[in-house]
Structure formats: structure tokens, C-alpha cells
Design goal:
By secondary structure, this protein is α+β, with helices and mostly antiparallel strands. The chain contains 5 helices and 5 strands. The protein starts with 7 loop residues before the first helix and ends with a helix.
Length: 174
């Protein structure tokens, strides 16, 4: 069959087996049908039903399309893929999260550290100095709207330890 040095039966058989094996790496029930069509083409070549490279590639092309269109939907019913649905609105995940003020935050502008980087931020009322712990309330355009965390949670760790040491010292003097 032709002057090409490769036996077409062997070529399509190996191509088919490789493609069917690739289905394990590239799931989706498409590559396996391309491989099955190549194996069917190799069978047609071995039986003598196909007599040329052009005929072999045409058979493979038609068989591939036929198998994918006819059998893929049947097989996907019995072999469903893993489907996970997750919330994709990152803003909703951020609401209520804590951040730290890195540049004074005013009702007009400021910066906070959140998720490992700094972001533009604004506050509704009061001015928040650097180091203040804040809670993210919402987002307006590209700026996070924040509010201070009241009580001990808003204190810097070093400030909290300093206050505890001061209190212990006062109790020791009394």
C-alpha cells in the first residue's frame, strides 16, 4: 500500500492504543473515541477493506466523528465526571474578614493589608491609623469599605502584651 515505509495497520493500531491510554490523562470521553476509531481503522486495513493511506485517514476521520457524536452522550450518562460548584464571588468570601491598616484609612482613601497584599480602602466615618485591625464590610468599586474591630481584637499583639505587662506590674506594686 503506497510507498511510505510505515505499515498503516501497525500505525493506526499503535495510534489507537496511545489515544485510548491518553484518556486517563485527558478525561472527557473524546480521546478514547478517537483511539477506538483508529483501532477500527487498523482492523479495516488488516481485513483488506481499506487500501490506501488516504482511505485509512478518511475512515479514521469519519469513524472518529461518528463515535464521538453517537456514543459520547451515552457513555457520559453512565460515567459522569466529577462536578463541583463553588461560590465564585470573591467579594462575598471577603465580607467579615479581618485586615490591618497599613496607611491611614479615611472616608476618602487609605490602604489595608488583606490576603497577603495591600488594597485601597475607605471607612464610613472615623479615621483609622496604621496598625488598626479592621473588618471588611463591603466593596465599592476598587476599594474595600472597612470598620474598626472594637475591643481587644483591634489591638496590636505588642500593644496587648504591653498592656498586660503594665497591669501585672501595677498589681505587683500594690
Amino acid at each position: 500500500m503506497g510507498s511510505v515505509g510505515v505499515d498503516p495497520t501497525t500505525f493506526f493500531l499503535i495510534l489507537g492504543l496511545v489515544l485510548m491510554g491518553l484518556e486517563l490523562v485527558i478525561p472527557g470521553l473524546v480521546v478514547i473515541f478517537l483511539g477506538a476509531a483508529a483501532v477500527l481503522t487498523a482492523g479495516g486495513l488488516w481485513l483488506g477493506l481499506i487500501g490506501s493511506w488516504v482511505g485509512a485517514f478518511t475512515c479514521w476521520f469519519v469513524a472518529s466523528i461518528g463515535l464521538v457524536l453517537s456514543l459520547r452522550s451515552v457513555f457520559t450518562r453512565f460515567l459522569p465526571g466529577t462536578v463541583t460548584k463553588q461560590l465564585t464571588d470573591e467579594d462575598l468570601d471577603a465580607f467579615g474578614e479581618e485586615a490591618e491598616v497599613v496607611e491611614e484609612v479615611t472616608p476618602v482613601a487609605g490602604r489595608i493589608r488583606f490576603r497577603g497584599t495591600t488594597w485601597d480602602a475607605q471607612t464610613v466615618g472615623e479615621v483609622l491609623p496604621a496598625g488598626t485591625r479592621v473588618r471588611i464590610v463591603t466593596r465599592e468599586n476598587l476599594s474595600w469599605i472597612v470598620e474598626p474591630i472594637k475591643g481587644w481584637a483591634s489591638l496590636d499583639r505588642s500593644k496587648a502584651l504591653g498592656r498586660m505587662e503594665d497591669r501585672a506590674r501595677k498589681e505587683g506594686e500594690a
